[in-house]
Amino acid sequence: MDPSPLSKETLQKFRSAFYDSPKNILAQNVCSRVDPFDVCLSRKQLEDVQHVFNHKVDEGKPMTNQKSSGRCWIFATLNVIRLPFMKQLNIEDFEFSQGYLFFWDKIERCHFFLNNVVEVTKRNEAVDGRLMSFLLHDPTTDGGQWDMIVNVINKHGLMPKKCFPESFSCEASLKMNRILKSKLCEYAKAIRDLLAKGAGDSEVRLLIEYQMENIFRIVGICLGIPSETFTWNYYDKNKGYHTIGPISPKDFYENHVKPIYNVDDKVCLVTDPRPTNPFGKSYTVDCLGNVVGGRACIYNNQPANVLLDLVKASIKDGEAVWFGCEVSKRFAPKQGIQDLEIHDFPLVFGVDIQTTLTKAERLLYGESAMTHAMVFTAVNTNDENEVTKLRIENSWGEERGEKGYLIMTVPWFNEFVFEVVVDKKYVPEDVMDVFKQEPVVLPAWDPMGTLAQ
């Protein structure tokens, strides 16, 4: 079919149809002055929201805030880990240092990228090829996946936030990331030029070491450099004084955190309903990771109801759950509600949005992907033991929802949750056996490789 331009007559027909409807005029009057999504909020759905649950873990304080950074995956992980840690030490409030893991992820991520440049160049990928272009587009993103945070914790350990507090570039990472991207693109060219001259592996390693010294300096200037050892003093709930250290972050994790929460005991399950990616299979994504020599990002693909059952089992046993979702869809951020019915788009616009395609179709057509990580802390079940709603600890401060906590319906879970992390003891044997498979490698740009930010 040959394309035809929009004619004057066609546009006039659209204009007449618009103004023939008083509802359109009312909607225009309101939406031209107010957030269109707020206009679409359903009063009825707002009235039905209650943060009361019959299965709830002990929650932590204070409510965390990632501010203007893409560190939700780090915050969500540390928010899960701190709950049993605080209980074990009998402390009132506590945060692990998000900035500490952010520092080491930046260092490791840049090194991983430079080694990816070597690998992809050796595949004879052109600099303007799809894969190299994809890698160069955002080489130092803040976002991440579960297996990536496990890599950083296992290699570098953990610190209390009191011992490595936030910096400006932790809370507002844009400018630092611009500096790093500029250098990484420059360094990618240098690596490709060196390989084009026939350089051996030893020459390339020396070049990357020189480049990483500069990267380390930049990140250290922006974020500070964590001490090799620290001493942490704290009071318990009974005002008793305690001290730990001097100790290395790695030993702090191994000796004081790992016996309570071992990241290696947790497994990541995803739900990707695209026909090309059958359930019961294992998947990974080309060039995705953050630590050279670390574990790969492995996805065990299961139906959404399996993920929901595992969340229920974990919460009922007292353990919070890390999860990844597309946070912005059918979401009332101020009220903290994730509900397919929270917006009445047809009433205002005459058409529906965001759920007109299936979950698989949204993935295929670029309309959906996992974008944010948070923590499930409660579920509500009915008389049939079916989950009816879920409670979420976010990392955006106390201003949204119920002092920072959100509420999610099960239909929303089915449509927009993409992965959960639970202890393997809750996972049936046949589901665990999927991890033994050789994973199918998805391309680097596949939506399942999208990073939580």
UniProtKB/TrEMBL annotation:
Cross-referenced Gene3D superfamilies: Cysteine proteinases
CDD domains assigned: Peptidase_C1B
Domain of life: Eukaryota
EC number: 3.4.22.40
Catalytic activity reported: Inactivates bleomycin B2 (a cytotoxic glycometallopeptide) by hydrolysis of a carboxyamide bond of beta-aminoalanine, but also shows general aminopeptidase activity. The specificity varies somewhat with source, but amino acid arylamides of Met, Leu and Ala are preferred
GO molecular function terms listed in the Swiss-Prot or TrEMBL record: hydrolase activity
Subcellular location, principal: cytoplasm
Top-level enzyme category: hydrolase
Subcellular location: Cytoplasm
InterPro entries according to UniProt: Papain-like_cys_pep_sf, Pept_cys_AS, Peptidase_C1B
Pfam (any one): Peptidase_C1_2
Keywords associated with the record: Cytoplasm, Hydrolase, Protease, Thiol protease
PANTHER family per record: BLEOMYCIN HYDROLASE (PTHR10363:SF2)
Family of the protein in this entry: Belongs to the peptidase C1 family.
Protein known as: Bleomycin hydrolase
Species of origin: Nicrophorus vespilloides
Gene that this sequence comes from: LOC108558323
